[in-house]
Amino acid sequence: MSEDRSTGDDNLKRSINWKQGMAIALGVPLLILPSLGYLPMYVSAAAILIWGFSVIQGFMQSTAYAEMATTFPKASGLPGFAQHVFRTENYKGKYDKGKLIGGFTAWSYWFGWSPILAIFAIMVGGYLHGLFPALGETFTEYQLSLISGLVIFTGLFVVNWFGLKDGAILGYILAAVSLIPLVILAVAPFATGHVQLANITDSWWPTDWAWDMHHILILFGVFAIAQWSACAWETAAIYGPEYKNPSKDVPKALFACGIICFVLYILVQSAVIGVLGVDGVMAEPVSPLIPVAQAVFGEAGSMITIIMLIFAMILIIQTAYLGSSRAMHSMATEGNLPRIFGKTNRQGTPFVAMVVIGLFNLVLISMGNAAAILAASAIGYTCANGISLFAYVRAKKHPAFADLERPFKAPKGWKNVAMTFGLFNVPLCLVGVVYLNSLEIGWTSTWVGFFVLSLYIPIWLYSQHETRRFNSKAAAARPADHDDADLVDASA
Hints:
Radius of gyration: 23 Å
Organism: Arthrobacter oryzae
GO molecular function: transmembrane transporter activity
CATH class: Mainly Alpha
Helix content: over 70%
Oligomer: single chain
Distance between the termini: 44 Å
Membrane topology: Multi-pass membrane protein
Keywords: Cell membrane, Membrane, Transmembrane, Transmembrane helix
Transmembrane segments: 21-39, 45-66, 107-130, 142-162, 169-193, 213-233, 253-276, 296-322, 348-367, 373-393, 414-435, 441-463
Structural class: mainly alpha
């Protein structure tokens, strides 16, 4: 594919290769941090298996996404795929229901990624509160979270104003600062003998576990929470329109991220449970890596760990900021959000979307509970993956897409795999996460999740009205332009 460097104000620029796309998505392994203590609370040491199976699930799903990324190279990841596949060509009615489905998928995906900014800003505030007692005397934990969010969001906005390539450079720097210590914390406990395998093998499942409907629903909910982290490396595909060579760059970036996630997720959770035991993890559900560092490296280790985690959180905020802003840009260019969200600067950065996302997350921080925000966000992410996999199946079967070039093809029969995991997401994991939320933090997060998702309906209806009005003005202007041309020809 020839390199396409569009110069229009509202076009994303083809400026990155697969290594840069991978660097941006390397924040994904850090998504395990909020759930390191959460999963063992329900499934004990089997959390290690859940993470492994969830990353494998990510491989199954991302194989389909990689094919769609090369089939629709101008589409922006999951949001773009679904919108392109479900829309009805040459639709004559007032509202295209297929377009609504695609737009809702993109909105769900956006809601799956965007709250990461608030979740990790709250965690940064919490760590700062514990790291510097003087700050705790001056500010509350909520105030520190709000200040942290404002500073981080503003800083990342400034860096990414100059284009995605600079965002990838920042990703390289933060990956080196945060991922290397994370790998050390994952490997060192095994090397120093602090990992006791009995802590894992003697606690594979909770003692009261039973394969009844109650526990099966919990298991589906745990998988939904896990995939919010372990499958999120599909974000490497969302930059499809910005890769120099999408047909080669997208699959490479996706699978490189997947392999890194598989190794790190299993090692980190194994190290934490192996050192602390399940009971020890449950005693430190928010930050279990800190006592692991203390056990392996002493008191100084906890200070290093907190500083490392803060850099790590900035990296994942960077990943989420870029991914969610591209999702909004994709929706706007497809006519599924107001046109203003598709506006980019000269460097191809969707700056309006980035401003709105930053403000939205400052509001979310006011909830003050990272677990509740994650639970609501997981509802959106589960819906997005399920419907996107159904979009892949439709793209494989619908005659309109049969003759499209597919530079990367999933193995034969992959539409059956995609359908299976689509149904696993919707309805099974969706029902499971709603049930799990009701047990853990009540119904608030569930209502917030469904409220944000339902908010899309009036926004979409307004967008359709705006599109029709814009098209009417354009149609009215064309005859006038034609008449002016005729007058010029006559005078000549």
